[in-house]
Amino acid sequence: MSFEFVQKLPTPAEIKDMFPLPARLAAIKAERDREIQKIFTGESDKFLVIIGPCSADNEDAVLDYTTRLAKVQEKVADRLLLIPRVYTNKPRTNGLGYKGMLHQPDPEKQPSVSEGLHAIRHLHMKVLDETGFSTADEMLYPENVSYLNDIMSYIAVGARSVENQQHRLVSSGCDVPVGMKNPTSGDLSVMLNAVVAAQTGHEFIMREWEVKTHGNPLTHTILRGAVSKHGQCLPNYHYEDLILLYRLYQERDVKNRACIVDANHSNSNKQYMEQVRIVKEVLHSRRHSDQIREMVKGVMIESYIEPGSQKVGEHCYGKSITDPCLGWEDSERLLYEIAEGLE
């Protein structure tokens, strides 16, 4: 075989034994899970904002960012529930570039998945401990969810993973909301089929075990825009797109018909400042339509301390080394405007 087996990695149980979650933090996470669940079931009318860096590339900067976010959360707690993006697995369109903290705890050093497993659990747990925020991350590798499932309160399945069988099956066993993004083609039926699959129980193979799941009723959709065959970005956050998704939901027998709108990626053509306008348009659509208000439970925003992006090695503190992000000043202002715009 053309594989070089570097080393055997610790199992999720072994990593959790090395870095156990204290009971105090487990209680905080459980309460957060209940709050978030109520938003998806309609028991709470709070609005979700899943916000943070495109990739969590530096522990100090991520903790600085989430500490700032926690101060905002205190002021908007009656209307918004913030979930920090602590994305430690980074999919790459062409397979090149920084693949996230799981692969490279230090972006300027050689990859080490063994060190990465320690680093990502340490970071997620430290965010929970220092800010009270349970976190969001992407399900890039379905078998790895168990390394962080006792800390995360939100999971996203990306546009290139949403049609994958294992992602759908593992999502069916998660106890927290899982957002299924539309594929890069924009085909909404692929995304909705993923929701149906994940809301259904299954039996399958996971980490050398035959496992059984009972379905995840909190699985929902994420609109992130699409790319045409000519490489042009096609947004899908407009009023007409949201009404179409609502109607397609009505045709399917799923629970908790919910949607999150991703304001970046192909919706903004990665023009990070456009996220401000896009979020405001989504809020306007919610105010205009009771159907959209019922379905759209929140937005996803890529945001960091410094605006834009940089190359690895440029050493601008708190600036993304992957996709460009909204800076902190604009992000803070936008969060307050979201809270006001819910009236």
Automatic annotation (TrEMBL):
<dbReference type="InterPro" id="IPR006218">
    <property type="entry name" value="DAHP1/KDSA"/>
</dbReference>
<dbReference type="GO" id="GO:0005737">
    <property type="term" value="C:cytoplasm"/>
</dbReference>
<dbReference type="GO" id="GO:0008652">
    <property type="term" value="P:amino acid biosynthetic process"/>
</dbReference>
<feature type="domain" description="DAHP synthetase I/KDSA">
    <location>
        <begin position="37"/>
        <end position="334"/>
    </location>
</feature>
<comment type="function">
    <text>Stereospecific condensation of phosphoenolpyruvate (PEP) and D-erythrose-4-phosphate (E4P) giving rise to 3-deoxy-D-arabino-heptulosonate-7-phosphate (DAHP).</text>
</comment>
<comment type="pathway">
    <text>Metabolic intermediate biosynthesis; chorismate biosynthesis; chorismate from D-erythrose 4-phosphate and phosphoenolpyruvate: step 1/7.</text>
</comment>
<dbReference type="InterPro" id="IPR013785">
    <property type="entry name" value="Aldolase_TIM"/>
</dbReference>
<dbReference type="GO" id="GO:0009073">
    <property type="term" value="P:aromatic amino acid family biosynthetic process"/>
</dbReference>
<dbReference type="Pfam" id="PF00793">
    <property type="entry name" value="DAHP_synth_1"/>
</dbReference>
<keyword id="KW-0057">Aromatic amino acid biosynthesis</keyword>
<keyword id="KW-0808">Transferase</keyword>
<keyword id="KW-0028">Amino-acid biosynthesis</keyword>
<comment type="similarity">
    <text>Belongs to the class-I DAHP synthase family.</text>
</comment>
<dbReference type="GO" id="GO:0003849">
    <property type="term" value="F:3-deoxy-7-phosphoheptulonate synthase activity"/>
</dbReference>
<dbReference type="InterPro" id="IPR006219">
    <property type="entry name" value="DAHP_synth_1"/>
</dbReference>
<protein>
    <recommendedName>
        <fullName>Phospho-2-dehydro-3-deoxyheptonate aldolase</fullName>
        <ecNumber>2.5.1.54</ecNumber>
    </recommendedName>
</protein>
